[in-house]
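As described in the Methods, two query proteins were run sequentially through the folding procedure within a single session, without resetting any intermediate state between them. The first query and its resulting structure tokens are shown here.
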Amino acid sequence: MNSFNNQPKSSMRRASSLDALRGYAILTMVLSATIVYGILPAWMYHMQEPPPAHVFQPELSGLTWVDLVFPFFLFAMGAAFPFSIRKRFEKGESRWKLVYEALKRGVQLTFFAIFIQHFYPYMLSNPQDESAWLLAIACFAILFPMFMRIPLPLPGWAHTTIKLAAYGIAVGMMAFTDYAAEEHFSLFTSNIIILLLANMAIFGSIIYLFTMRNWLARIALLAALAGIVLSAQTEGSWVQTLYTYSPLPWMYRFEYLRYLFIVLPGSMAGDLLLKWMNHSAKSSDIDKEVETPRRVAYGVLAISVSIIFICLIGLYNRWSFLTFALSALLLIIGWWLVRKRQGSGVLWRELFLLGAALLLVGLCFEPFQGGIKKDGPTFGYLFVTAGLGCMALIAFHVICDYLHCRRGTSFLVMSGQNPMIAYVACDLLIYPLFNLLGITKWFGVFHLNSWMGFLQGILLTALALLVTMFFTKIKCFWRT
């Protein structure tokens, strides 16, 4: 790796780019779930669930912006590992304690996935009724003592008792609630997005913990994982047995580990970001600091964003070779812009090289497995989205940590600091309240045309954002 030169101390108070990327991912995830189905252009939905019926079509290949939101969140999750794991290890915490913390976090996220899924109003009654909406709000409320730090000067045992009581109430709610279609509580009823994050929290964290100083070991593990995924197609092989075996099928399946191809490259980007921050923090003479010129920063921003748009447009239209050629050209230009730069340019160069490797490998894999697909995720999809995650991190670093556009990005940063609240705010709070107040009966106006259908998503996402920002402002964070 190249050494990092000094940065202005002001940029070292916090690297906001990672929070902004996470916030962008969670807000666009909410937006994609709240736009009106069936009336918007096909590129406004998942590629494999086109309008108007939105029936899953596994044979369809391509990429839309909706297919990027979850991998961007996974990439940001991996990029946070150096800050949440490596720093604690370097402060003296043992590896085994950090392994325990990873397991604990995964179990908590699994519980979260199961609990919220059981209390979405459409799970509780069909058609939805007042009791379903009230139970959804009760679910939202009980999540606070479960996942937030109690803001009271209580002894440790009291905090633990409150949390355990909250979990006990949640278990009781699931056990004694009647569900739609006479279905009862089931461990297999869970939110798949959160369940995947739980698996990544366990396996991604543990792998990072034992490879934090060795990229080659991380790459070797990914190569082995690729071998297992490909060899699992061989009938009767031990690899297929490993791939299909699960001691806890409601929580873990080997196929979930394919998303490590996004999370672990994200951890490499996080290593680079942390290294940049550490070198910047050593600055002792601001007058002698050398920063990358603004014109270069604007060029880097334009190139990184252009690469994302080219891949979206090109892969949506199945222009595979043209997408590869244009992406490679822009990557070369981006690297050339920062090849001899100091300051932030060093970080951008390293991220460009990492992103180029991931993106070009992914585009070479694109024709494989019938073209790029989100479900089940093809190798092209996993590598391409990891590479685009690098480009997004570069873009947010330019905006947040170089140009210091704090006001314009504060809503993203605050959402990224409290993503669990943002994720459930609509389903467990806003929709139930609107139904109880009789507001949803007016939602028919949003079904008139595609513009109104998109406006519904904007309004609901904005409300989820306001809820999240309110709790972030008062220092109420949900943490696992």
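Immediately afterward, the second query was submitted; its sequence and tokens are:
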Amino acid sequence: MTATTEINNIISEENLVYKKTDVLLDNEMHYCPGCTHGVIHKVIAEVIEEMDIQDKTIGVSPVGCSVLAYNYLDIDWQQAAHGRAPALATATARLMPEKYVFTYQGDGDLASIGCAEIIHACNRGENIVVVFVNNAIYGMTGGQMAPTTLENQVTATSPYGRDCASTGAPMKISEMVSLLPGTRFVTRQSAETAGAVRKLKKAIRKGFENTREKKGLSFIEIVGTCSSGWKLSPTQSNEWMKENMFPYYPLGTLKDE
């Protein structure tokens, strides 16, 4: 056997073996102390491992705090331009319908520059999962006001509090997309307690199961904290979230078909 023949045999498709590893990589995270992203990453990793779909899952992360998500979850990833993750996920899922495709987006990304993309992807009912992290602020770029910023909430660009008379009311994205025919599962969860994490994990798993059954788009909003943007400690952030965000963004499932 020649060296060339031996090499061809090694790299031939039938000899390729996917080497499974832990989905959650042992890398130090760049997220701020108390940030919800780390918990969400762990939950997604656990669901992927338990469903045994590590080699079939593709994540799409756009601009935002989650831009480096590929450093922490050992799956295939694609990088999208700001707000364009649903468009890229649409193409990926249509070209590779056997894959489990999900986007991982913040509120500044999804609800602002990417509002058109998410609305139309939901309306079309693309067979993807959307993980939407809502912390009511632009976390990565300095704590500016986002579409989800609460009324009177202080941010870098609303130092006297959000004035709804000039900026409009905070957008309830889950309520909006739940009205569209293409969404099959729309839920709003959190991750500040063990019980909340268990509910979140159940929701994310249901989203991936919907993808497997070709049911259409699953939209999972997660109300989270941004200690740095809010200028609060992690403990204070959790309390502020419960006192201020939960009443406006109530937890629970809005749609399940």
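Residues 7-14 have pLDDT under 50 and may be disordered. We note this only descriptively and draw no conclusion about the first query from it.
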